[in-house]
Amino acid sequence: MKANPSYILTHDLGTTGNKSCIYRIGERIELIDSSLVEYPLITTPDGGAEERADDWWNAVCTATRTIMERTGINPGSIGGMAFCCQLQGSVMVDRDGTALRNPMTYLDGRATAQMERFLYNGLLKIDKWNAFKTLRSLLITGGLAGTAKDPLWKYHWVRENEPDIFGKVHRWLDVKDYMVHRATGNFAMTFDSAHLTWVYDTRPGRLQWSRAMCSMFDVDMNHLPPVIKSTDVAGNLTARAADEMGLAPGIPVFGGGGDTSLISIGSGCLDLYDTHIYVGTSGWVASNVDRRMVDVGNFIASILGAIPGGYLYVAEQETSGICLQWFRDHLALDEIGVYLNAREVCSDPESVYNSLYELLNEVVSQTEPGSGNLIFTPWLHGNRSPREDAYARGIFFNIGLSTGKRHLLRSVLEGGAFHARWMLEAVERKIPRRESLRFVGGGAKSDEWCQIMADITGRSIETIENTQNAGTIGAAVVCAVGLGIIDSFDMAKPLIPVKGVFMPRMEYRGMYDENFQVFKELYQKNKKLFRRLNAR
Q1: Which residue of 25, 250, 447, 458 is surrounded by the most CB atoms within 10 Å?
Q2: pLDDT of 225-253, one tens digit each?
Q3: Which residues of 501-528 are buried (b: 16+ CB within 10 A; e: fewer)?
Q4: What is the dihedral of CA 381, 294, 489, 440, to 10 degrees?
Q5: What pTM, to 2 d.p., does this model score?
């Protein structure tokens, strides 16, 4: 490891807010300061989920100015910057890089008709998909855009529903790539975002936009930006961007990565088959693999990660930690009025959330495991893996006269862990079973949720310091490798040590195993009813 000449600035642009962090890398990755700025998610009755591009940028600028002013760090001491952003968004920009419409996020499910027209045809089918297109996509990309929420179908939704806007498109970007352009003026996309368009050739030795895939799915290759590594310099901070952020112009901005890619690194999962569970707004189970892998039946595929030559085998969950936020906003506030008062007098939303979640966790600790056999399904906006279903929704199952809000609350955490186990078991059909798992994201801040995760998965659960910042830690590692502070990704693992370990309690194993079987059957027995109610 080389001497660290400067600080590193990273940004974690998520579904409901951006957190900017300043790090210094020495014997460990030291967090100097951070700031969270929120923005709204805009939903539409037809299944749309959008955000405003200017809200993203303003949040990044506000958070950056806050931590720069608070720490008093000389702007010239920032040696590098990178973004970690939500994946599978769709940002249509003109030649100047101006967003032509509100970006469509990974939650946007309006493009069902477009997906069905391209994939649900032909005499020969694999499941419900056109066999020729499916096999060709699997060969070239290692996967398939099999859900209406994939960026490929958002591209076509805009094309068909907003032709005037589509006619002005110069580049089709993911969220991170838009933010990089906003900071540098350059257009670029990293391997993970390119892969998730499902028109990128991911075969070893190829790694390029696929003319065959673009032709098959009618994508204009002129809309596709150059593809770079996460550790490549995408450009330097422009004078305008620097002025808005309170920084010095010329700071190298690295390619960075999507949240899945960089959270894996920030969790300390850097070896083959290292596996982590993430609970943020969304959730997933991801494992490092050394080859392309796909499980069509369980909606699991590998994507190119930030580490050269490696892939992440990922099972995604649409709504995870946001289920606890939903409980907080809709079921807890009438009893915890302090939250409303705190919002009015506190300028730091993160401190409000921390205090409230500490109170909720105390309530969970006072409620018996199993929640009185109450089971919650965390599918508040559909599901992806291991059963892709845009119509699935949440259930509180088995409510009785003795059921109270404490049971409801604990069942939300247990439901998230049940779904993580469901994804984990599907992932481990193709990789070796892991007895220890890293648990990161905001959910891992809760010791109660960590213990529940251990009890329900039957594995030891490891956490790290600043677990809610795993994405920005990963972005800091990317910068450090790009700057030469760290010689390789392998050297980063000792810098991200384990902070806590939670072991499964065997006395609850039988009860949780039985409830897990019921949890899975709830989807199978209700999927037709979900469609009846939600496909209108």
Answers
A1: 25
A2: 999 999 999 999 999 999 999 999 999 99
A3: ebebeeebeeebeebbeebbebbeebee
A4: 30
A5: 0.90
